[in-house]
Amino acid sequence: MSFRRGVAALAAVAALAFGAGCAEMRGNESIGGYVDDDSITTTVKTRLVEDKSVDAAAIQVETAQGNVVLAGVARSEIEKITVESIAIKVRGVKTVQNNVAVRP
């Protein structure tokens, strides 16, 4: 297993474990809804790590009710577009808000 895949797998496990433990404290949504959001976030992050053209460590991903918000810094406009493209292709994603800034 490559280092990037190992980090992605560890991030996925941690996000699912943390999300499941905190889901009942988040308000009106069901626990299943938050596990789904955590699953979407984890999948997006994993795919960013797997894509060698993206600096996954520089991108933050948050999901609420299937709506993904991307933040962070990209090296180019192409990388910013790639990050958004990766996110929108994940099953369960309704919308993507791309707040990633391009480094000058």
Structure, described:
- The chain has 104 residues and is α+β, with helices and mostly antiparallel strands.
- The protein has one domain (3-102).
- Helices cover 50% and strands 21% of the residues.
- The chain contains three helices and three strands.
- Strands 1-2-3 form a three-stranded mixed β-sheet.
- Helix 1 packs antiparallel against helix 2.
Structural class by secondary-structure content: alpha+beta
Helical coverage, percent range = 40-55%
Radius of gyration of CA atoms, rounded to a whole number: 14 Å
Lateral arrangement of strands in the main beta sheet = 1-2-3
Ends distance = 35 Å
Question: How much of the sequence is in beta strands?
Answer: 15-25%
Biggest pleated-sheet summary: 3 strands, mixed
Low-pLDDT sequence parts: 20-26
What are the secondary-structure elements, in order, as H or E?
HHEEHE
Number of strands: 3
